Predict the structure.
Amino acid sequence: MSSQPTILCFEDAAVQRLAPVVTARPAYAISCASHRLIDWLRHLNLPILADCRPHLRAIQKLDFSIDQAPTASPMPCPTLFVNARLVPSPRIFKLLSEIVRNAQPIVIRDGEGTVAVAYLATPDATDAADSVPITTDAGTFSAVSTTEPMQWSPALEQRIARLAASLPASDRIAETFKWPNDIVYHHMRTMDEAMQWRITNGQYTQLQDGVFVSEGAMIGQYPVIDTSKGPIIIERDVKVGPFCFLAGPVHIGAGSRIIEHSALKDAVALGHTTKVGGEVEASVIEPFTNKQHHGFLGHSYLGSWINLGAGTCNSDLKNTYGTINMDYGTDKVATEMQFMGCIMGDYSKTAINTGIFTGKVIGVCSMLYGFVTSNVPSFVNYARLFGQTATLPPEVMISTQARMFARRKVQQRECDQQLIFDMFDLTEEERNLQAAIGL
């Protein structure tokens, strides 16, 4: 038996509460404070398997080079089980490194009692498949499961929970994302330590006190830079236009472009190949998203391949200055946050001068016009101000995807097109719910 453990990163049932953030990506690929969980797992330099929802398995294999974890065959041992909803902070990386180094059986849970991390040192005699696996085009499922091919299957999570019950329990707590607004909360809370880790472990040139740049990064004339509350880290081949204001902590991903007269401040993390203009505060923007024109974005999370039209603004503070509550389907969540903007899923777009009210959730592949005063489900043309809402067919979004990809010299693959179809089917309940309450 090899002494080198295998990492098994798994999505559990609660991952579905993180929609629309995880509709188009595995939970381990959520960006928070400039890091993703998958990045930390790779830093452990161990073999990685993962269990994600079936509609994402082709993406997982092609984009992350990760094989699907076995559902019914014996677990590799030793195994480090990692919940894909873990908050991807340097603290978590330190915890995982410590567990691997100690190589002792242990289970650590989150605040809800869910398995967050577990280390299985030796095979468990009680670990056996509950049924014969059935293989379909979408993946492997247990014969006792009644789920449809595109839906999440509980077989592996239940198996991990059974194994974890036999392990020594730690009194430590490992934090996980429970709702999408948690991403913004943990982003602001962990940004400082995430930036310090990058400075310590990265290869940067320090241009001035608190400003670190990679090869090929360029800052235009007449910048105003404030590092009194945190550093500025600019990755390779970034172009920052003239007359920009940068107030740390700020992380700008590789190949991004910051438009002239932009203001990035107070904990901003931009993914690679983004285009950003206007004012951005305390927000996470995933790769390939454009917010190129003037307008305010604050305390928000934007997925990938989003485009915000000129003048688009969101509100992140109530007129009463009270804490913000958010609706996720039929669930109402008290965020206990005074500042909370919007959550927007991948591929959604806004027209010029769109205004997004406080604490709104926008699904994937939707088009927004005018004032957004309610949550917007996925695949919807939302023009409530004009009395118009309509479903967007997936074929329209596939054509849009092709044009967007071509502009960024990204090849559209069959799995990218299939993802659009799958997401349309998976989000039907969102649209039905909103229609029932009168979107």
Observations:
- The helical segments are 37-43, 57-64, 90-102, 155-164, 181-201, 394-407, 414-426, 428-437.
